[in-house]
Write a structure and sequence with these properties.
The protein folds into 3 domains: about 10-60; about 80-210, Trna Endonuclease, Chain: A, domain 1; about 215-265. Strands 1-2-3-4-5 form a 5-stranded mixed β-sheet, with helices on both faces. The longest helix is centred in the middle third of the chain and has 21 residues, at about 140-160. α8 (about 180-185) links the parallel β4 and β5. The chain is an alpha/beta fold and about 270 residues long. About 50% of the residues lie in helices and about 15% in strands.
Length: about 270
């Protein structure tokens, strides 16, 4: 952020609303409302917060989808919920997954966030969590992940063992630096971030699999979100499939009904 002022451009707002699958009529109403409320020096974050509040009033499931980027940043404060979340995404894509696997390399033993297998693929997955969108995964992270993969590969080469890993995959909830992308392409390290690669970003994967984090839900308070994460729940679907856990953390039956309605609409569950 440079702090420089930019002229109002509704294109970015429209694009973000479309990404949340808001219908054209609703998009137009929100853009018109925001244009009416614009003031000199209004920040981008204020504009998006205003749009989110308007969406909450009109259509909570779309508001939940709209808040997906922010929701991903709330899968903390530790990175473990994000590791479980990544495993769920891969499971939905047909992979068999294990979280927190110890894998011996030639030099040292590595704790791998997720091991994923499907057909001839056997992947080592690093789930890199950041709690701020301003923090990007840089080339040092890519180098670290690739070096671990090479150490593990070296052990297989020396032992001539079966079941070796086909490749490594670095998944982050924010963005990559250009150098990290350049290194990943050159080294054969698979990368998935919030805006990379085009057409197959983390946002695309979430929307395709309907594996939305529970932190999307606008009907849950931040306190209740944190309690659920601490209890090992990370997905909206897990909340829907086990509503008793909502009762156990002190949520009223009426509120539970609203949470389940929003979750079913967001995940498109009948």
């Amino acid at each position: 952020m440079t702090g420089e002022r930019e002229p109002w451009d509704k294109t970015k707002l429209i694009r973000s609303l479309r990404a949340a699958k808001a219908p054209n009529e609703l998009i137009q109403r929100i853009v018109t409302h925001i244009e009416k409320d614009l003031y000199d020096g209004m920040s981008t974050s204020d504009i998006y917060a205003h749009a989110f509040n308007l969406l909450k009033r009109e259509h909570r499931p779309i508001a939940a989808e709209y808040s997906l980027k922010k929701a991903m940043l709330q899968l903390g404060p530790s990175g473990f919920p994000f590791e479980r979340f990544v495993a769920h995404i891969l499971t939905a894509q047909g992979y068999n997954t294990k979280v927190g696997v110890m894998v011996r390399g030639q030099c040292v033993t590595h704790e791998v966030d997720v091991v994923a297998e499907k057909n001839d693929e056997r992947m080592l997955v690093e789930a890199k969590f950041h709690n701020s969108a301003a923090i990007r995964s840089d080339v040092k992270v890519a180098l670290y992940v690739h070096a671990r993969f090479q150490d593990i590969e070296k052990r297989f080469e020396n032992e001539d063992g079966e079941g070796r890993y086909t490749h490594a995959w670095l998944i982050t909830n924010t963005e990559f630096t250009s150098q990290a992308i350049q290194y990943g392409r050159c080294a054969g390290l698979a990368l998935t971030g919030w805006n990379y690669p085009k057409g197959n970003t983390l946002q695309d994967l979430i929307q395709a699999t309907k594996m939305h984090p529970l932190t999307c839900l606008t009907t849950l308070t931040d306190k209740h979100k944190l309690q659920l994460l601490q209890n090992g729940t990370v997905l909206c679907r897990e909340v829907i499939n086990n509503p008793l856990q909502l009762q156990r953390i002190g949520i009223s039956k009426a509120r539970i009904s609203s949470i389940l309605d929003e979750g079913r609409a967001l995940c498109e569950i009948e």
